[in-house]
Amino acid sequence: MSKILIIEDEAAIRRVLSKILAEENDSYKIEEAEDGQQGIEKIKENDFDLVLCDIKMPKMDGVEVLEEVKKIKPEIPFVMISGHGDLETAVQTMRLGAFDYISKPPDLNRLLNTVRNALDRKTLVVENKRLKKKVSKNYEMIGSSEPINLIKDIIEKVAPTDARVLITGPNGTGKELVAHWLHEKSERSASPFIEVNCAAIPSELIESELFGHVKGAFTSAVKDRAGKFEAADKGTIFLDEIGDMSLPAQAKVLRALQENMIQRVGAEKDIKVNVRVVAATNKDLKKEIEEGRFREDLYHRLAVILIKVPALNERRDDIPELINHFAGKIAAEQGTAPKSFSDSAVKLLQEYDWTGNIRELRNVVERLIILGGGEISENDVKLFASK
C-alpha cells in the first residue's frame, strides 16, 4: 500500500486529486493537508511514499515545504502542483529536488503517469538502500575489541569524505576488508571499486596496468587500453601492497594524486580522473623511505588518514566471535548445518599463536568443521589444528 499526502490550500482541488487517485488504485492510502505547516507535521509523524504539494499557499509556500522536508526525509518524492504563473517557480523546485511538477488544472493522464513513476522511483531508492546495507554487511569487520572498535569509528568518520587512507598491518589481518568497507560506506559506493595488487604485477608492467597505454607504446601494445585509474573513475582505487611499487610508478601515482590527471603509457594527452585512493601495505614505509625505496612525498599524499589493522594476537578477545562468524559462513557455503564449538575448544584456539592472522584462523575453522565431530571439541582442536 502506497501512502500519498496531498498538500493544497484549495479544498476543491484536494477533493479532485483524492478522487482521481482513489479511482486509479484502491490500494493508495491518501491523506490531506490544507497548508504547508500542517503538511510538514504530517510528514514528520508518518512515512509517506509520495507528496503532491501546491506551490502558492498561505503561511508556508510549496518551495519552503520542499526545502524543509528534504532536510528531514530526503527520500520522499515531491510532485509540485503549479498554477499558470508558477511555472518558473516549479522549474526552480526541480533544481531543489522535486520529482516533477503538474500544472493546474491537472491533466488526468499526466497526473497518473507522474504518480506511478514517482512511486516506482521511491521503491527503487528504498531497495537500493537495502541492498547497499546488505553489501556493506559482507565487508563488515567482525569483533568488538578496543582496536577493532577504534577502526570502526575511524571508518564511520572518514568514509563519507574523499580523504586518502593508508592501511597498514601484517598479512592476513583484513586490510582489504577495511578498504572495501570504506568504499561501501562512502558516497562513491555506487561506482567501481578497483583493486590493484602492486606486488603481483611486474615492475615493467605496473605503469601500463595503472594508467593504460596507447597502441604501439611497447611490443605487446597492439591496441589502446585504459588503465585501472580510468576504470575507477568516480569510484575508489585500492592500491594493495603499495610498498612494493617501483619508484618510477610511484612518481606517476604522485602526479595523479597532485593533479587528478593521468597519462597513458606512450601518450602525450592528459586524462582527468576523479578517483579516491586507498592504499595498503604490510611494510614499514618510513623505513622504506630511509632506505630510498619509497618516496616520502608520496607517503604524505597517501597517509592523510592512517588505519593500523592489528594482528590477531593483539585482539584475542575477538576470536570467539570470529569463530562463530566463519562457522556460519562456511556452513552456508557448503549447504550444511553450522557446527558449534565447545567452550574449551574456543579457549584453546584463543591461546594459539596466530602468525597467519585472520586468514589462518578461517582455514583452521574450516578444517575443524570438515574433520571434527558434531560439536568441535578441545580434542578436535588438538588433533586437527595443532600448530
UniProtKB/TrEMBL annotation:
Keywords: ATP-binding, Nucleotide-binding, Phosphoprotein, Transcription, Transcription regulation, Two-component regulatory system. One of its GO terms (molecular function) is ATP binding. Residues 141-370 form the Sigma-54 factor interaction domain. It holds the Pfam family Response_reg. The modification 4-aspartylphosphate is found at residue 54. GO terms for biological process: phosphorelay signal transduction system; regulation of DNA-templated transcription. Residues 3-119 form the Response regulatory domain. This is Fis family transcriptional regulator. The lineage of its organism: Bacteria, Pseudomonadati, Bacteroidota, Flavobacteriia, Flavobacteriales.
